[in-house]
Design goal:
Layout lengths: L9 H11 L1 H11 L4 H13 L9 H10 L3 E3 L5 E3 L1 H16 L4 H4 L10 E10 L11 H9 L16 E7 L3 E8 L12 H18 L4 E7 L3 E4 L16 H14 L4 E8 L5 E4 L2 E4 L6 H16 L4 E5 L4 H14 L2 E4 L8 E5 L4 E5 L1
Parallel strand pairs: 5-6, 5-8, 8-11, 11-12
Antiparallel strand pairs: 1-2, 3-4, 6-7, 9-10, 12-13, 13-14
Helix pairs in contact: 1-2, 2-3, 5-8, 9-10, 10-11
């Protein structure tokens, strides 16, 4: 059995409508409904009945427009489902919502520990160095340099020190694994963390697919165990009656990354923090009370293996409980990674803990 979070916060609905409009609200409800289009449509009608959506809004016309734009469609059985255009739109909206306001230094992080060959020509130039591509020579700047020490009446003689080349931007290929926590704590105590988690995952995948087309992106879910899923399945992810086997997630992420031949590799982990399960000898060991040091230590060992393999972990922490934050800080320090701390209702506003540069700052 899998659990679905069904409470609709009126204040959140008002905020979504005022800031985003009907389309973003529909996408939010679609994620909250686990990708069930018909349920999201029913919720919108219910919101209109409660007065949260204005009575003069024609929802039938709105849904018809979504159908015409290939955002939603019908399957072989006549059920209304998300279409290919809807999957793309929901990723774009998530990207705008999550990363639209972040500083360039925060949102644009792309690991370049092993830079590739530069190929994008920039406007800046520098002095030629042995081994530079002759095709990168800036003829105009080179001639200007040569003319400074040549008599105008004589033939221009170019010395090696006169040569200038265009700078090129280093292109790095990177393999990324996005880990999504689907443990029961993601909907515990009436707090919906799985919908924000899916938004972050969708935003990350859209960012990589559009800005870094040479990169690879893989997605896995971790609860009692870890399983790889296609990117297209993210909107349909639901929380199960699971514990949090973070170690299994990190192990699977490393196996996936070993298949990839990219120069750089990284893990994005979206979680509410605390590991509560461990697989030993084929058996699941669990402890949901506090921080079990046996589970914690094995998980931290896995984070250290990632560090030794050159795989940084960036954690998106969707909770602010001190105990959970403490664990994520330990994991990030050991891995020399990064952590973004945010509450589920304030996505896009993060505390960035950067353990590479040893600094902490607020980003929005």
């Amino acid at each position: 059995m899998r659990h679905r979070y069904g409470y609709l916060d009126p204040e959140l609905i008002r905020q979504l409508l005022s800031e985003m409009g009907l389309r973003r609200l529909f996408n939010h409800l679609l994620l909250q409904a686990g990708g069930d289009v018909e349920e999201a449509m029913q919720w919108m009608r219910a919101l209109q009945e409660r007065g949260l959506i204005a009575s003069d809004v024609d929802l039938d016309e709105f849904f018809a427009r979504l159908m015409a734009e290939n955002i939603i469609g019908t399957d072989a059985n006549g059920n209304v489902v998300m279409a290919a255009g809807g999957e793309r739109q929901i990723r774009r909206d998530a990207l705008d919502e999550i990363f639209g306001g972040l500083d360039k230094s925060a949102a644009g992080y792309h690991s370049v520990a092993k830079p590739g060959q530069g190929s994008e020509r920039l406007t800046e130039t520098r002095q030629y160095q042995f081994g530079d591509d002759p095709m990168s020579l800036d003829a105009g700047r080179t001639l200007q340099n040569a003319m400074k020490h040549n008599d105008p009446a004589d033939a221009i003689r170019i010395h090696e020190d006169d040569l200038e080349v265009f700078e090129t931007e280093h292109n790095s290929s990177c393999a990324t694994v996005v880990m999504i926590d689907i443990s029961h704590s993601m909907i515990l105590y009436g707090e919906d963390r799985i919908t924000p988690a899916k938004k972050v995952a969708l935003a990350l995948t859209e960012l990589i697919l559009t800005k870094y087309p040479k990169d690879s992106i893989d997605v896995l879910l971790f609860g009692d165990d870890a399983v790889e899923v296609p990117i297209s399945e993210i909107p349909y992810v639901k929380v199960g009656p699971f514990h949090t086997n973070t170690k299994a997630g990190l192990e699977l992420a490393q196996r996936i990354l070993r298949r990839r031949k990219h120069n750089n590799k990284q893990i994005f982990m979206i979680t509410d923090g605390k590991p509560s399960a461990l697989t030993e000898g084929g058996q699941l060991y669990t402890n949901s009370f506090g921080l079990d040091m046996k589970i914690v230590n094995r998980t931290l060992e896995e984070a250290d293996r990632c560090r030794r393999a050159g795989i940084p972990i960036t954690t998106f922490m969707l909770a602010t409980d001190p105990m959970l934050v403490n664990f994520v800080e330990q994991l990030s320090q050991i891995n020399r990674g990064r952590a973004f701390y945010s509450s589920p209702d304030r996505l896009g506003e993060y505390i960035l803990a950067d353990y590479i540069r040893n600094r902490r700052k607020f980003v929005h």
